[in-house]
Amino acid sequence: MLALLHQTHAPFVVTVLAMVFTAERPAVAVADAHAEINDALDQLRAAGYGDEDNQPLPAGTARDLCRQWVQAGWLVRQVSADDDAEVYRLSAYGVGALEVAGRVGGTRTRVSESRVRTLLEAIERLAQDADPDLMSRMVRLHEEIQQRQRELTRLEKGGAVETVDDEQLLEAAENVLHLARELPADFARVAESIKAIQRDVVAELRHDVRPTGEVLREYLARGRRILDATPEGRAFAGALRLIGDPAQIDGLWDRLRTVLRHRFTELLPQQQRRELTEISRRIEQGVKEVLAAQRQASHVITTQVRNHDPMRDRQVDELLRDVMSGLHRWVPGSRRGEAVEPLRRLPVADVGHLRQRTSDPRPPQPPAPLRDWDGSDDLPAADTRAWGGPRYAELRAHLEAFADGAVAVDVVAAFRAADEEIRRPVDLLGLLEVAHGAGMTETTEVAVVEAVRPDRTRRRFALGGVVTANPARVDGSGDDD
């Protein structure tokens, strides 16, 4: 901040920063800032500034000046969270320099009754908070209650409200403005301290010096309690308990409207009236900036922890070091303006044909031959046949017998009339196959049949009605065996 105020072109820099960055526009797009600063430079040079006998102006374009101001720490260049566009913001040092210049160029600070009263009240509250004695606290509260009660009794008896002359009100308003001018720089310092913690955490994660589990536990906890990590953050957390309540902000705005309706505000300059009007909004804006910086820092730290890949980070670092080493080797032997052939595509490794499948290099062996059955083992032929496939011959014979010479036969009725040995679930499918071979026709009705498994358990199946031609009347139907 002192470097900004003491440099040769401080009047120009302070004026331009105050013109571009206002309370209504704390962030300015990079292109807009360059255009406005270039326009200011052109107007000043056209008016004769920048000559040897006149006020000197910095050399270079607006882009060069903004780059210098970013390097000096007066501006911050970042990506906006709203539209992903690059913007400039005043740093805490830039805000502090503008506040100092505004106080010096504004109304002269003077010892006033309001300022002394503010000091005395602050000392009194400090003493009350520091004194833990119960009796002293009770005595002070009783004295305050009695004083308030006497004032209330006097007003109830028709006493007049004590008025304050306009001069004292003006002094009090100047004191309020003096206190309010300190807030933007304080908010900016808190936001920058949070961003500094974010950079330190990400850098520590990228170094990968400690075990991953330890890094996760420490920095995730630090990201959740980021406001408690700096003195500015702890002070802001305390202030947030006072001004973070919407009712407090609404009450502040109501009191400011009461002040602005008073006739003494007509004696204030236009700029001071505007500052009084904007106190509530500037407090809200400062709180939002700090909370946004906290959310962004927590998001960046959490994302880095989740996506942290030490091997990949080391590979990127090694690649960047190789690039810088190559530039150091190439620059001494190069000439000014020498063309560099760009790398239009990455090289492809010529490795020929890669093997796509790995298998046993030994040739495949055939399975062992089946053992000849000599009939010595007692195979459960009946059980094996019962759990086998459909019995097509028995099903055809049953369907022909059930038709009894008719042209068409109902397959569902035929299955219901069959013996249990050929009324298995698989026999239902076999009967439908026989009907399909003879030429079946589906009906619209839905029928439910009950099949019997070899273990005598029963299953119910629903199917559409099927009518088929009598297999005995179908010529060339063949044998399904």
Task: Describe the model.
The relative contact order is 0.05. The strands form two sheets. This protein has a three-stranded antiparallel β-sheet. The chain has a three-stranded antiparallel β-sheet with strand order 4-6-5. The chain is 58% helix and 9% strand. α12 runs antiparallel to α13 (270-307). The protein is mostly helical and 481 residues long. It has 18 helices and six strands. A hairpin with a 5-residue loop joins β5 and β6 (458-469). The model is unreliable at 476-481 (pLDDT under 50). The chain folds into three domains: 2-105, Winged helix-like DNA-binding domain superfamily/Winged helix DNA-binding domain (Arc Repressor Mutant, subunit A), CATH 1.10.10; 106-117 and 166-321, no CATH class; 389-473. The longest helix is centred in the middle third of the chain and has 38 residues, at 270-307. The chain is elongated, with a radius of gyration of 46 Å. Residues 350-385 are annotated as: Disordered. Pfam families: DUF3375.
